[in-house]
Amino acid sequence: FLFKEPAMESASLEECPVCTKWFPESVLADHVEECLNGSGLLKSPSPQPREEDPDREFALRLIAQEEMQRKMEEDRNQRLLMALLEEEKEHKRIEVEATLFSCKICTKSLPFEKMYYLDACPHMFCRECLHDMIMTKTRKKDCKGVICIDCKVPLTPRDLKELLTPQENEEFTTASLNQLIESSADFVRCPNEKCGNVMQTRKNDASMESDGSQHGPDGKLLSPESLRHRHEYRIRCRECNLDFCAQCKVTPYHLGFTCQQFQNYQHARHCRFCQTQLNGPSHGAVDEVCSSVECQQKKEIGCRRVIACGHACGGIKAEYPCIPCLKCDDGNLQQKGEDFCNICWVEELRAAPSIVLECGHLFHYACVVSKINNAWSGARVTFGFLECALCKQQMKHPALTAIMKPHLQLYEQVKTKAMQRLAFLKLEKAPEITTPSSAYFQSPEKYAMYRFSYFICYKCKKPYFGGERACEGNRMEEFDPKELVCGGCSDTAGKDNCPKHGKEFIEYKCRFCCSVAVWFCWGNTHFCDECHKKAGTIAKVPKKDLPKCNCNVPHPPNGDEFSLGCGLCVNDYS
């Protein structure tokens, strides 16, 4: 980089020693001076016009040459220093790699690449031990224990990122969050495994503590202590609607108890029906019954045997074999003992003696008996009370034979009458019976029972035909049974006997329209269902203003009683 003498320079262009650009020889000197002034190497108080001076130009070149030499020397020294540092660093690396380090966890001597310096402290352990320690603490739900074993400083997120895979890191983060929620009094997680929703707990409210009108499951008023506990710890999940205790995670919430009281209650003896806590010595599983009148009545009809699991049988007396245990969920029943009875919807199945019907469904025996005794509601005879509340099959059980016998006899009578009417009306091949998609396909008995309405005569207690169901309209909820009288028992026109069928099928026309009469009121008037609803009004209507005849049966004008004769012998009306 030494400059040549002016005589030896190129006659055309020369390079500026400051900016390394090429310029004609005639302007190079001025340019070098400008570069030196711009770089601060040569400053002049004020630019003065100068004359051409060869010595001055040569001096400027020497100054530029010296400056370039100084810069290049500094650059060379810098590169040399960096090379020496890299070499020293490499020597140290080789020296470290050749050295074995001891892990304080496993006490093994390992090379440096298998060791790891913690981020928040100067301690070093082997990577394998740190990884195993983190994952063990994670699976034990002790994420707060992931710390340095020397100085107890928690590991940083950088340490976790270096030591764990992304999946393991996510597992640790989830476990850490769960531990934080479980240890916090301000948050609680829904115990439903399929939900897991996190909710904020409520703070105690003095206004709720003084509320003394709340009742527990036993009907007694809740104590102030249980009221406070309920308000503070009873939680209902907004996602799955689960009711649970935020303190002990019991589902559903133990209303009327604190957590400790509920634990004591669970370990105590209970009434086998109402679950009331019992005191005193035990007299066996069968006699674990409280002194209430209701539970004592259940005990009288309940089975007195103890089944193989040690629990009292939940069936009825004199039934053999015993039904499966209602407290042990052994899968032998279609329902569980904790399920509610599908008839009363008030108590669990295990809260009263129950029976298993032939269809396999379980109900309280008392509920089944009550359902049968109540029979149908309303005026029209129906037989849904004889069907299982779940599968709609006819209920069958040895204990129900006697109580169901008169109802089954009535069912057969109504079915026979309905089938006779179906045959006389030539409806055996009605679309409802022959269409595969119909609910009555190949079931003429069900269709006949559905289509025709029958009522029980108040006088002779026999069923009689009251028209077709489609003509009923909305059945009155309240009715007087004395007004339901068959044609044979209400012979107001004297046409009371059929030479072939007797009085049993005698029917009457409604006095006020052309429909078949269902009601017999005031001892002399027959009504259809629609006219009976407005009996007080329509009875005052003059005969000339009553509806005109719209049927094909010859009869006196509406307003007079008329017997249609034997229902089985008449097939010209619907």
Reconstruct the topology from this structure:
Elements: E1 13-15, E2 22-24, H1 25-39, H2 54-97, E3 100-102, E4 109-111, E5 115-117, E6 124-126, H3 127-139, H4 157-163, H5 166-183, E7 187-189, E8 198-200, H6 206-209, H7 224-233, E9 234-236, E10 243-245, H8 259-266, E11 269-270, E12 277-278, H9 293-301, E13 354-356, E14 362-364, H10 365-374, H11 401-424, H12 431-434, H13 444-451, E15 452-456, E16 463-468, E17 506-509, E18 519-521, E19 525-527, H14 529-533, H15 535-538, E20 562-566
Helix pairs in contact: 1-2, 3-5, 11-13
Q: Number of helical runs?
A: 15
Percent in helix: 25-40%
The strands making up the biggest β-sheet line up spatially as 1-2
Distance between the termini: 129 Å
Main sheet overview: 2 strands, antiparallel
Secondary-structure-derived class = alpha+beta
Fill in the keyword field for this structure.
574 residues; 15 helices; two-stranded antiparallel ribbon; alpha+beta; two-stranded antiparallel sheet
